[in-house]
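Question (not urgent): is this output format expected?
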Amino acid sequence: MSNMRALRPVFPILVGAALMLTLSFGMRQSLGLFMPSLTRDIAVTITDFTLAIAMQNLVWGLFQPIAGMFADRWGYRPVMMIGALSYVIGMILMATANGVIAVLVGAGVCVGIAMACASFAMAMSLTARLVPATIRSTALGIMSAVGSIGAMFIAPLGQLLESSYDWRTGFVGFIVIAILILPAAWIAGRVDKEAPLTLSPDNTDTLSAGAAALAAFRYPPFVMMATAYFVCGMQLIFLTTHLPSYLVLCGLDPMLGASAIGIIGGFNIIGSLFFGWAGQRWSKQALLGIIYMSRSFVLAVYFILPPTPTTTIIFAAVMGFFWLGVSPLVAGSVVEMFGLRWQAMIQGFAFFSHQIGSFVGAFGGGWLFDKLGSYDVALQMGVGLGLFAGVSQILFALFYPPHKPQTA
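Got this back:
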């Protein structure tokens, strides 16, 4: 009860961060819905479109630690407002695109910057700063769950606008949604007025940005977690980018792709809440390994069977449960290992590994499809690497449990 009373003054900040996260992530997760129509109407190939998504993930990963460092120095509000504005520009470019350059800059560069500055890392970092340590993992799970709500209505809305009008109208709808991120980011930016952090000599809080980064890269549990995070990005972005196209190729209703993404978002709410709660009680590192192995098994079963609406819905529900449960586990692990001050920056370094995987999943999946005419090889690679990462993460958690790194 005392924890809940402590949250009352910061509740509007958390709501603003949650709204910013759910809108930004919901749109980003729904971009693949427009790939079949866009590539049919203008001089953009599937490889071009997936290259844009791959660029988006690399830009996101490259800018994430920079955005985290600037948030500590300048404040969260200016960084998040820049991200929101970049999203609006990106959606305007997509709605007016007539060639590959606009798609690369809009969906690639602009959305990548926006996601670095006004999405998961910022929302999770300010949540960690505002809530008591006794409920931090659970609160991070709640924030991660909120991030999936957007996909539940944004994906079907985008598909509805495209089906009723065209893909450009769908992006016009996304422009309106992107504009709503601006006031949400402004409200979330009130975190800058909260009491400053109490620096602890037991972690990296008292170090400079460079020294904190060096301590992270010298710490084996962090390096293992960041390396396994590569597979997480590869699997998830492959699905959000290519699942709608795969279903159309199999002769299924295009609306099924939007429904699947929405269902993934809905069940991710349950999964994020569960893994946030579980991370408060059990090894976060072992839980990460379980997620990677479970996803790989579900992927293998679904793509071995002939796709039907029923199997697709079941697949989306199960995969959704394991979708973003990694977010509270990774964010909570970074806080436990290194403290709060440089959390956004250090988490950004881990996330860069995730985004390299996302690049491989988006562009590599499209490139292999263009070369081979199917997704079989891409799926085999995704399942195999996922199982390897999961087993490695669990073994590392058993034989090299995290402890406070040496910062001196």
